[in-house]
C-alpha cells in the first residue's frame, strides 16, 4: 500500500469547514503539526479562539475524516487554543494587561446591548478565556446591577490605581461603581471620554484575553470619540429586527469604518418570540433583518437571540443567563456567538509590535 503523505492528511482536514472561522483549519493556519508513523497519524490543532464547548465536536469530525484516509490505522488529535493579541487603531496605545478589546455597540437605546455584552463576556469565559467587562454606558451604567454587585466600590491598593471588581470570575469596571445609583450624571462630551479613558487606564487588569466594552447607545460624537481613543481590535453591533433599529445599526457600522475598527459582525437580539405557553414562534419585530444587513454590508451574522422573559429576569436579578442557566438553549446560543466573535477576531491582523526589540541608532 502507498505510504500516507502529509498532503493526504491535509486534504482530509480541509474537508472540514469550521463554522466559527467559516473556513477550513489548514488555510486558517490552525494545523500546527502532522506526524505520520506508518499507519499512525497525529495532528496538532491550535485554534485562535477559546472553544471548550466545541473541542469534542471538532475532535469527532476531524477524527472521522483522518480515519477515512487510506492506510490510516490510528489517529491522535491534540486540540488547544492560543489567543493572540490583535492590532488596534493606528496611533492608539494598547492597554496594559489586556490582549484584545471588543466594543459592543448599538445604533439606538433599548435593543439589549448591555444584556448581550455581559452574556457575551461570560460566554467567552465559559469557553476558557480570561475576560473583563468595561461598562462605558456612562448615561445608564447597568453592569453593576447585572453582575450582582450594585453599590460595590472598587478597591485601591496604592491610592493611585483601581482593582477591577470581581464577579462570576469576570474583572469589571464601571462608572456605576464610582457614583451612587440615583445620582444624576450630567456629562458633557469631552468629560465623558476623559473620565472613561482614565478609568480604563487606571485599572489593574490582569492577563485579560478579551475585554468587552459596553458602549453608550447611539452613534453620536461621544461614541465616535470613544471608538477613536480606546484601543479596539474589533466591534460587534447589536440590533433588533425592526427596520428603524436596523437603520440606526447601519450608522454603527459606518462609525467603526470611519475609525478603522473592523466590525466582527452583527448580533440580532429579540429576533423571535417563543410563546412560553404553547411554544409558537412569532417574529414580533420582523424577520431576518440582521441577516439582510449582514449580507448587504458583507459582515457576519454572529447569531440571533429570542425575545425571552428569562433573559430579562436573569439580568434584573443580577445573574445573567449564562450563569443562571448554564445548560439552557439560550446559553448555548451565547456561547456559539462568543466562539464566532473570537474566531472572527482571530482572522484579523495580529499585533507583532511586542516581538520586535526597540532598535537604537547611535550617531557616532
Ligand atoms: N433577548 C431578550 N429577551 C427579553 N428581554 C431582553 C432581551 N434582551 C434584553 N432584554 C431586556 O430589555 C431591556 C433593555 O436591555 P438592555 O438594558 O440590555 O438594553 P441596552 O440596549 O443596553 O439599553 P440602553 O440603551 O438603555 O443601555 C432590559 O430590561 C433587558 O433585560
UniProtKB/TrEMBL annotation:
<feature type="binding site">
    <location>
        <begin position="107"/>
        <end position="114"/>
    </location>
    <ligand>
        <name>ATP</name>
    </ligand>
</feature>
<keyword id="KW-0067">ATP-binding</keyword>
<protein>
    <recommendedName>
        <fullName>Iron-sulfur cluster carrier protein</fullName>
    </recommendedName>
</protein>
<dbReference type="GO" id="GO:0046872">
    <property type="term" value="F:metal ion binding"/>
</dbReference>
<dbReference type="Pfam" id="PF10609">
    <property type="entry name" value="ParA"/>
</dbReference>
<dbReference type="InterPro" id="IPR044304">
    <property type="entry name" value="NUBPL-like"/>
</dbReference>
<dbReference type="GO" id="GO:0016226">
    <property type="term" value="P:iron-sulfur cluster assembly"/>
</dbReference>
<keyword id="KW-0479">Metal-binding</keyword>
<dbReference type="InterPro" id="IPR033756">
    <property type="entry name" value="YlxH/NBP35"/>
</dbReference>
<dbReference type="InterPro" id="IPR000808">
    <property type="entry name" value="Mrp-like_CS"/>
</dbReference>
<dbReference type="InterPro" id="IPR027417">
    <property type="entry name" value="P-loop_NTPase"/>
</dbReference>
<keyword id="KW-0547">Nucleotide-binding</keyword>
<dbReference type="InterPro" id="IPR019591">
    <property type="entry name" value="Mrp/NBP35_ATP-bd"/>
</dbReference>
<comment type="similarity">
    <text>In the C-terminal section; belongs to the Mrp/NBP35 ATP-binding proteins family.</text>
</comment>
<comment type="subunit">
    <text>Homodimer.</text>
</comment>
<dbReference type="InterPro" id="IPR002744">
    <property type="entry name" value="MIP18-like"/>
</dbReference>
<keyword id="KW-0378">Hydrolase</keyword>
<keyword id="KW-0411">Iron-sulfur</keyword>
<comment type="similarity">
    <text>Belongs to the Mrp/NBP35 ATP-binding proteins family.</text>
</comment>
<feature type="domain" description="MIP18 family-like">
    <location>
        <begin position="7"/>
        <end position="76"/>
    </location>
</feature>
<keyword id="KW-0408">Iron</keyword>
<dbReference type="Pfam" id="PF01883">
    <property type="entry name" value="FeS_assembly_P"/>
</dbReference>
<dbReference type="GO" id="GO:0005829">
    <property type="term" value="C:cytosol"/>
</dbReference>
<comment type="function">
    <text>Binds and transfers iron-sulfur (Fe-S) clusters to target apoproteins. Can hydrolyze ATP.</text>
</comment>
<dbReference type="GO" id="GO:0005524">
    <property type="term" value="F:ATP binding"/>
</dbReference>
<dbReference type="GO" id="GO:0016887">
    <property type="term" value="F:ATP hydrolysis activity"/>
</dbReference>
<dbReference type="GO" id="GO:0140663">
    <property type="term" value="F:ATP-dependent FeS chaperone activity"/>
</dbReference>
<dbReference type="InterPro" id="IPR034904">
    <property type="entry name" value="FSCA_dom_sf"/>
</dbReference>
<dbReference type="GO" id="GO:0051539">
    <property type="term" value="F:4 iron, 4 sulfur cluster binding"/>
</dbReference>
Amino acid at each position: 500500500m502507498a505510504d500516507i503523505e502529509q498532503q493526504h492528511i491535509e486534504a482530509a482536514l480541509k474537508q472540514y469547514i469550521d463554522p466559527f472561522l467559516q473556513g477550513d483549519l489548514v488555510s486558517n493556519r490552525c494545523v500546527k503539526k502532522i506526524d505520520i508513523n506508518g499507519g499512525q497519524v497525529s495532528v496538532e490543532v491550535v485554534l485562535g479562539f477559546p472553544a471548550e464547548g466545541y473541542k469534542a465536536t471538532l475532535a469527532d469530525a476531524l477524527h472521522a475524516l483522518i480515519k477515512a484516509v487510506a492506510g490510516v490505522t490510528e489517529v491522535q488529535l491534540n486540540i488547544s487554543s492560543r489567543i493572540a493579541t490583535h492590532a488596534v487603531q493606528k496611533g492608539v496605545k494598547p492597554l496594559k494587561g489586556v490582549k484584545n478589546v471588543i466594543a459592543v455597540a448599538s445604533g439606538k437605546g433599548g435593543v439589549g446591548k448591555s444584556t448581550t455584552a455581559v452574556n457575551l463576556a461570560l460566554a467567552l469565559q465559559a469557553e476558557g478565556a480570561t475576560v473583563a467587562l468595561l461598562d462605558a454606558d456612562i448615561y445608564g451604567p447597568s453592569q453593576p446591577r447585572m453582575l450582582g454587585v450594585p453599590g460595590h466600590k472598587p478597591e485601591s491598593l496604592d491610592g493611585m490605581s483601581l482593582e477591577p471588581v470581581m464577579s462570576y470570575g469576570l474583572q469589571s469596571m464601571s462608572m456605576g461603581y464610582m457614583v451612587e445609583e440615583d445620582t444624576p450624571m450630567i456629562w458633557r462630551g469631552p468629560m465623558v471620554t476623559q473620565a472613561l479613558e482614565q478609568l480604563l487606564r487606571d485599572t489593574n487588569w490582569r492577563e485579560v484575553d478579551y475585554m468587552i466594552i459596553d458602549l453608550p447607545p447611539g452613534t453620536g460624537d461621544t461614541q465616535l470619540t470613544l471608538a477613536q481613543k480606546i484601543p479596539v481590535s474589533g466591534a460587534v453591533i447589536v440590533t433588533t429586527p425592526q427596520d428603524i433599529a436596523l437603520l440606526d445599526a447601519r450608522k454603527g457600522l459606518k462609525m467603526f469604518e470611519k475609525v478603522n475598527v473592523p466590525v466582527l459582525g452583527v448580533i440580532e437580539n429579540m429576533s423571535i418570540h417563543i410563546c412560553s405557553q404553547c411554544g409558537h414562534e412569532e417574529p414580533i419585530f420582523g424577520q431576518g433583518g440582521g441577516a439582510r444587513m449582514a449580507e448587504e454590508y458583507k459582515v457576519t451574522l454572529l447569531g440571533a437571540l429570542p425575545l425571552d422573559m428569562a433573559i430579562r429576569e436573569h439580568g434584573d436579578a443580577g445573574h445573567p443567563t449564562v450563569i443562571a442557566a448554564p445548560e439552557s438553549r439560550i446559553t448555548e446560543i451565547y456561547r456559539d456567538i462568543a466562539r464566532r466573535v473570537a474566531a472572527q477576531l482571530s482572522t484579523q491582523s495580529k499585533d507583532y509590535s511586542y516581538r520586535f526589540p526597540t532598535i537604537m541608532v547611535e550617531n557616532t
